[in-house]
Write a structure and sequence with these properties.
The chain has about 650 residues and is of the alpha/beta class. It has 2 domains: about 1-15 and about 25-325 and about 335-395, Arginase, Chain A (3-Layer(aba) Sandwich), CATH 3.40.800; about 475-655, Histone deacetylase domain (Arginase, Chain A, 3-Layer(aba) Sandwich), CATH 3.40.800. The protein contains 20 helices and 16 strands. It has helices at about 30-40, 45, 55-60, 65-75, 80-90, 100-120, 150-160, 175-185, 235-255, 280-290, 305-320, 335-350, 375-390, 435-445, 450-465, 480-490, 550-565, 585-595, 615-620, 635-650, and strands spanning about 5, 50, 125, 165-170, 190-195, 225-230, 255-260, 295-300, 410-415, 425, 470-475, 500-505, 520-525, 535-540, 570-575, 600-605. The longest helix is centred in the first third of the chain and has 20 residues, at about 100-120. It is globular. The structure holds 7-[(3-aminopropyl)amino]-1-sulfanylheptan-2-one and zinc ion. The site of zinc ion has 8 residues, from loops. It comes from Characodon lateralis. This is Histone deacetylase domain-containing protein.
Amino acid sequence: MGTALLYDEEMTKYKLLWVDPACKIEVPERLIVSYEALVRSGLSDRCISIPAREASDSEILLVHSELYLEAVKKTPYMTLEDLKEFTLQFGDVYFHPNIYHCAKLASGSALQLVDSVMTGKVRNGIALVRPPGHHSMHGAANGFCVFNNVAIAARYAKQKYGVKRVLIVDWDIHHGQGVQYCFEDDPSVLYFSWHRYEHQNFWPNLRESDYDSVGKESGTGFNINVPWNNVGMENSDYLSVFCHVLLPVAYEFCPDLVLVCAGFDSAIGDPEGEMCATPDIFAHLTHLLMNLAGGKLCAVLEGGYNLTSLAQSVCQTVQTLLGDPVPQLANLRGPCKSAIESLQCARSAHRRYWSFLKHAADPPMTDISTKHIKSAMEEEEKTEMAEEERCTEGKVWPEPPERLCPPVCSASVLPDDVVCPDGLKPLSSSKDLEPLLVSKLKTAAVDGDGVTTFSRLYTLVEKLVANEIRNGLVLVPDVAAAMMCVVQDLTSDLVKRVLVVCVGKEKELDYVTTDGKVLVVQISSEDSEEHRSKYYIPVCLKKGCSDTSGFIQAVLGLLLPLGYEYNPDLVLLVRMPGSGVVDSMWQQLIGLLQGFAKGHTLVLMQVNEKACMGSTASALLGHPAPPLQDLQTPFPEDGDALERLRERLQADWKMLQTTS
Ligand SMILES: NCCCNCCCCCC(=O)CS
Ligand SMILES: [Zn+2]
């Protein structure tokens, strides 16, 4: 299934008709450069073009009042003076004779996108729209927004398709207060937003944008705010919040649909956000959300005012929606102190509502919400001093790297008597191995056909590293022996860093590097105190890998942050026999691991586990993993052990930090 792209140049046909410094950044060119970048890069041709349409009155009334709608209906016939007058009643927004028409197209586009995804016409998609929506409220326009496109889409999806749970992720740099107000008492819509806040000193300067606004009444716990109290947040900060706040809750919530308030003013160079995350971060944020809701994801453009980073960020998002490999993120050095405080506050505010956050630490001593009573003088100083050094238009960043799709997606190395699953390309050619390696294999008690398997395995790795293949599946007689050989001989020259993810445990892994060329994370039911090192991390689950709740917690809160920081060139996923890992979890794991090493994942399985080759192949081919249904509450021992493990390892691995 494909990716929908909604764009209509009609939505470029309104602009600011008078002087208003607060609104001058919201220009038609935002849409033009975004669409043109998609055309120029060839991405638009790979999408399924879906026409925009006007939202109807009844659809708009899902969120807005009749009074407000009737008032906006009059704006096309207003004189310039009337438009200025009409605008004065709202904040930081402007009206234009054609904006009502465009606002209906923007909301209608979001609904078209929901239809396309919910009817299975496409898997996911993006709507390039203006005016944006997430600040507009029941009875008011605000922050460049007229109708709340995403809020209307959420209500529409519930009403028309009976969607039970909608996750709204707002990665725009502003707090979508309009969305928060709409759903704060609604447990069927989980709203997550991060936003520049600076202790309430940044627009829209709302007390209710802070982390302690967790929702109300039956919606308590279903509103998550992560305030950024400093500018200059980077990729590490964004990924830490995804791994340690959003994703654990999102998996527990188990949405049927994911809507994204895709604002790109959170990217480097944006005058509003003044953050430093690079456009390729959106490739990863999109990728991480695509594993939810069976891949049903609708992204709707919100903000984004630096035309260069906006265009690049849109392309990064669309390319991931299309299933292209995500780029490697280099030198993630962990979240900054301010980000850790924010994520610690958000986690502790929600630990009583989400069992996946149950073991979150107490809030930091310096309760950050009281910091907003800063002396004006201090604020003034900061602004003057920071002006020149902040990330504004002057900031430069490298073009995102090209994300080439290998000619072959998934290859397989199977014993001759095993049928190759659909979609996998059997790797036939296997060059003869160097005699040295053969002799080594012989000593490893590998029999004749084992040597053949290993020579094919070696060829497979060479093709992965050469980006001729994206990923591969190998069935071997003895998975532990195979892993040793691959690890020992791989790290010779082919790859710099191998992340080995060991699911289950047959026997002790007696091969551990200390030079960092291999990082082993082993998830199993047994603890192994001995020779645990920075590069060998055993994760013990009380009930073993069959406990999906504990497993996914370990993956999100430990494996993902580690993997991002380690930044491997190859991922070796080893399924030990008898691991007991549940199929949907296995597919989720393969899906999530695609975020590393440009998707170069090598799955090693034992021949006697060939029954799960089909689902492995499906995940390797990029088909969305089935949602993890009815997750039980994780065992307290596991949650607690994971927290302790993170605390112990965070000295070595900065991405594991969740407490200041
Ligand atoms: N009143 C002092 C300056 C206020 N600036 C307001 C900017 C609104 C931004 C809204 C936006 O970007 C939507 S995504
Ligand atoms: Zn914004």
